[in-house]
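tl;dr need the bound structure. longer version: we got a ligand (magnesium ion) that a collaborator sent over and nobodys looked at where it sits. i said id run it. heres the input, straight from their email, havent touched it
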Amino acid sequence: MLVLSEKDENVVRESNDLVVELRSISKLYGDTAAVADISLKARRGELLCLLGPSGCGKTTTLRMVAGFVEPSSGSICINNIDMTHQPPYRRDTGMVFQSYALFPHMTVAENIAFGLENLRWPRQKREKRVEEMLKLVELPHLAQRLPSQLSGGQQQRIALARALAIKPAVLLLDEPFSNLDAQLRVRMREELQEVVRSVNVTTLFVTHDQEEALTMSDRIMVMNAGKVEQIGTPGEIYEAPATPFVAKFIGWCSLLKGAVDNTGAFTSTAGLRIKGNWSAGPATVVIRPEQVKLSTDGAAGQSQQARVLHSRYCGGATRVVLDVNGEQLTMQERFSFGRHPKPGDVLGITISTDNLRLIPMQEQHA
Ligand SMILES: Nc1ncnc2c1ncn2[C@@H]1O[C@H](COP(=O)(O)OP(=O)(O)OP(=O)(O)O)[C@@H](O)[C@H]1O
Ligand SMILES: [Mg+2]
């Protein structure tokens, strides 16, 4: 696994580290662009997640990399070879589809061997590889079963084994865990990460689950309506969202529109003021629940009055929606037993300006 410092994350240092390169690819269906001008570079062994709402073009992008959909324009390189017009089997990619279809009439072993047969591997070599793959996904005892005789999670692992069998340069996974229950999903995430690391394969992984994206990825590409909103590490995406869309899509937040005045302070349209030293001009401020805190005695000067609109107990913490000077903010706090805030209660809060993200208007694309 390559370890790069935060600063270098978006820079590919050596060209032989570069496994996947998408150059301005677009896909038009009639007049509508399913994918519009996407560029991306992925390094060897990198786990890169494509994240975005339904219909934003994730599957289309992945299928273009695999070769099942031809781009309307742009080009795709894999291992520095232009693959834009090559058929899928020449591309050195393994794919797990959104509905992880195994061939129902083939046994587990036959499913895994499928790609190897296409590549005309001799039988002995094939059998050895199938055995290795079954060991990798820890299901060696299931070789002779049919897919209908497996649990959802087992089918998932076999689909992964099948995609990895040909030792692809690129592994493409389209929402591989969408059919699994919450616990199995978490376990599969960890297993997938381990497998990907152990074979050091570059992986493009589609999800619309933000937690999955944040916990698994080296980098995340956030998409919206066929376009890239931001590419960055999970930390960058969460803490320094490039656009209001990214802020809203990843994690809870309140977005306050307003402007920065000549003193560097931000005032929202409703009148909530946050001291700072930003550059003057219209902007949006992103406030995460963890940045809204109950005032302590020491913070008297900066404390603001907040009226509780409603609150929801979530186990470890309570999520409280507050009205602060006409703006709605969400706070996440742990209250001691029996002291949960009720609608109408008035609390003193402070907004932490540490890492507070302000997005100037000119950086906000439509
Ligand atoms: N073969 C097709 N013909 C016409 N339009 C298509 C075709 N395939 C996809 N689209 C459209 O392209 C857009 C992107 O689809 P895509 O399947 O890439 O979305 P997605 O991000 O994978 O969504 P989901 O999260 O629901 O799987 C959608 O508006 C979809 O309707
Ligand atoms: Mg899809």
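gonna send this back to them w/ a short note. The CA atoms of residues 20 and 212 lie 22 Å apart.
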